[in-house]
Design goal:
Shape of chain B: globular
CATH topology of chain B: Heat Shock Protein 90
Number of strands of chain A: 6
Largest interface: A-B, 23 and 27 residues
Distance between the termini of chain A: 29 Å
CATH architecture of chain B: 2-Layer Sandwich
CATH topology of chain A: Transcription Regulator spoIIAA
CATH class of chain B: Alpha Beta
CATH class of chain A: Alpha Beta
Structural class of chain B: alpha+beta
Radius of gyration of chain B: 15 Å
Oligomer: heterodimer
Strand order of the largest sheet of chain B: 1-2-3-5-4
Number of strands of chain B: 5
Strand content of chain A: 25-35%
Helix content of chain B: 40-55%
Structural class of chain A: alpha/beta
Shape of chain A: globular
CATH superfamily of chain A: STAS domain
CATH architecture of chain A: 2-Layer Sandwich
Number of helices of chain A: 3
CATH superfamily of chain B: Histidine kinase-like ATPase, C-terminal domain
Strand content of chain B: 25-35%
Order of helices and strands of chain B: EHHEEHHHEE
Strand order of the largest sheet of chain A: 1-2-3-4-5-6
Largest sheet of chain A: 6 strands, mixed
Number of helices of chain B: 5
């Protein structure tokens, strides 16, 4: 089993990166996710999905505690990502555990709707 | 009525985040309600991005104000822009679907599901304003100009 590697995204307003510590894969998203970083986030999530499936991982933590805002276009990218995980066969499926900051109230509202969309793969955890 | 902000010509995409933060700070200072301010700011961001992406020509406007509705005050935010007839018809259909729904959250989940299955524009932002920001939405048309208005009470029914 190889280490999960995905090229990080870093702009003046947004960053995304993946770290693996033991059996725990953590993708961290920070800043503001909007149209400015839409293309980069698309590529990042595509590569993350590919790496998780190729490396046979069963769970990834999506840490959005420092993601202060996300527009609906980027929300759609996360929806597509979670939807792709949900469509995998049960043997290859991975779960996505969103780690949120309860002080950022939009996160709970957004994640509750996403969980209703993909209850089999989406978990919500508070930091 | 207090007009808090009027923008003639909406900002380009890279400046929308700064405009959103300005709206949030403005309402936070005015109302002292960070939660409502964040919801209004989110609505401003989604509406402005729609204008920046889909307006067919000038004019492009954003305005926000506090208005009285009977015994209570409401915050309103709206954008006006020129749009194609196809775009206007699509927006009217989306607003009808959102407003006829008895449960904005269920409708939002339906929009999320739809957006996951298509690369076409999903209008997820409008469903998000309705469900996440808890704002009602109206669409009005004058010639080739379309206005999308979002509105929410300053206080919830429980504490008003």
């Amino acid at each position: 089993m190889n280490q999960i590697t995905v090229p990080p995204v870093s702009s003046h307003s947004f960053s995304a990166s993946v770290n693996e510590d033991g059996m725990s894969v953590r993708a961290k998203f920070s800043g503001t996710a909007d149209m400015e970083v839409h293309a980069q986030l698309t590529s990042f999530l595509d590569q993350l999905h590919a790496a998780l499936t190729e490396q046979d991982r069963r769970r990834v933590i999506a840490d959005i505690c420092e993601l202060y805002f996300m527009n609906s276009s980027c929300l759609k990218l996360f929806v597509v990502w979670v939807g792709r995980a949900a469509k995998l066969s049960p043997e290859t499926r991975y779960r996505v555990a969103f780690l949120m900051d309860p002080k950022l109230q939009w996160q709970r509202r957004t994640l509750e709707a996403m969980r209703a969309f993909a209850p089999a793969v989406l978990e919500i955890e508070e930091a | 009525m207090h007009t808090l902000l009027r923008l003639e010509g909406t900002p380009p995409l890279p400046a929308i985040a700064a405009t959103r933060e300005y709206v949030r700070a403005l309402y936070d200072t005015w109302l002292g309600n960070p939660e409502l301010s964040a919801r209004v700011a989110m609505a401003a961001h989604e509406l402005l991005e729609n204008v920046a992406k889909y307006a067919s020509a000038e004019p492009r406007r954003l305005e926000t104000e506090v208005v009285r509705r009977g015994a209570r005050e409401c915050v309103r935010i709206w954008t006006t822009n020129a749009a194609t007839s196809e775009r206007i018809a699509m927006l009217q259909g989306i607003l009808t679907e959102l407003n006829e729904s008895a449960d904005p959250f269920d409708t939002y989940v339906r929009f999320i599901t739809r957006s996951s299955e298509s690369s076409e524009e999903s209008c997820l932002g409008l469903a998000r304003i309705r469900a996440e920001a808890g704002m009602t939405l109206e669409c009005s048309v004058s010639g080739s100009e379309v206005t999308i208005c979002a509105e929410a009470p300053l206080k919830s029914g429980a504490d008003s």
